[in-house]
Amino acid sequence: MSKQIVQIVKIGGNVINNEEALNSFLKDFSEISEPKILVHGGGRKATEVSSAMGLEPKMINGRRVTDEATVEVVTMVYAGLLNKKITAKLQSFGCNAMGLSGADANCILAHKRIVKDIDYGFAGDVDAINSEIIDVLLQNKVTPVFCAITHDKNGQLLNTNADTIASEVAIGMSKLYTTELNFVFELKGVLESIDDKDSVITAINSEKYEQLVAAGIIADGMLPKMHNCFNALQKGVSKVKIGDASLVKNSTKLYTTLSL
Length: 260
Ligand SMILES: Nc1ncnc2c1ncn2[C@@H]1O[C@H](COP(=O)(O)OP(=O)(O)O)[C@@H](O)[C@H]1O
Ligand SMILES: CC(=O)N[C@@H](CCC(=O)OP(=O)(O)O)C(=O)O
What we know:
By secondary structure, this protein is α/β, with parallel strands linked by helices. An eight-stranded mixed β-sheet has the order 5-8-2-1-11-13-14-12, with helices on both faces. It has a two-stranded antiparallel sheet with strand order 3-4. It starts with a strand and ends with a strand. The protein is globular. The longest helix is centred in the N-terminal third of the chain and has 25 residues, at 68-92. It has a single domain, classed as Carbamate kinase (3-Layer(aba) Sandwich), CATH 3.40.1160.10. It has helices at 13-16, 19-30, 43-52, 68-92, 131-139, 162-173, 206-214, 222-234, 246-249; strands at 5-11, 36-40, 59-60, 63-64, 97-100, 108-112, 124-129, 143-146, 149-151, 157-159, 178-184, 203-204, 239-243, 256-258. The structure holds adenosine-5'-diphosphate (ADP) and ligand 2. It comes from Lutibacter agarilyticus. It is found in: Cytoplasm.
């Protein structure tokens, strides 16, 4: 018997910061009939709040350098304000959402990110997804809403790229379901030219990806996003798409599909 489909949708910080776009996206998301999981970022809001508090935001290769003060700010912004706001909005659209960090029910276990020559501070890389507990929620028609905060089981919270969380949750759930992963952001897809918002590259495989990186066409936050897309495909996720909010409504043919 074929496995049931679960839709994993990741929403980025630029859409979250636009109240109208966020409401419209969440309404469409709540209408997805299959079991679904939402993962949200909020990097833009965290940058605003950090700056207002006199902390200088620093990103390297699309990831935030997270010192002790910053991990407190991002926990307040991601696991507090944004996670609860999104959950409440989903409830208003009739979607029984439950907002979670990776520490809740040990859903997402991570370790401090160690990369040669770069100290990212309290940034996390994911080790394990508690797919059994997530499945209990799905079986009870509860929609998990994950923010970008994980933990290390020693009491340390870790700031974790939300694209990575989406991809790891999709991989983890692939044991039990056929998983489809959708990255929703403010553009229509991966663009050939960042100045031409309609120049969507509709299909990218691993070879094309390497060419696009070498040519500098894929940069900044798109680097970890694409890396996560291919990681997901290699580890059992069935479909990966990148596009704007119309992706969840199935109302557009213009988006990027990834393949190995
Ligand atoms: N070729 C490209 N196509 C689209 N976006 C790109 C490309 N290269 C770099 N980017 C940048 O990547 C950003 C998306 O990454 P990020 O900000 O991390 O997304 P999200 O909003 O999902 O968190 C885009 O806003 C854009 O500025
Ligand atoms: C370690 C790291 O980079 N964490 C990210 C988590 C939030 C995120 O990914 O938000 P977007 O999806 O809106 O970019 C950050 O703090 O920016």
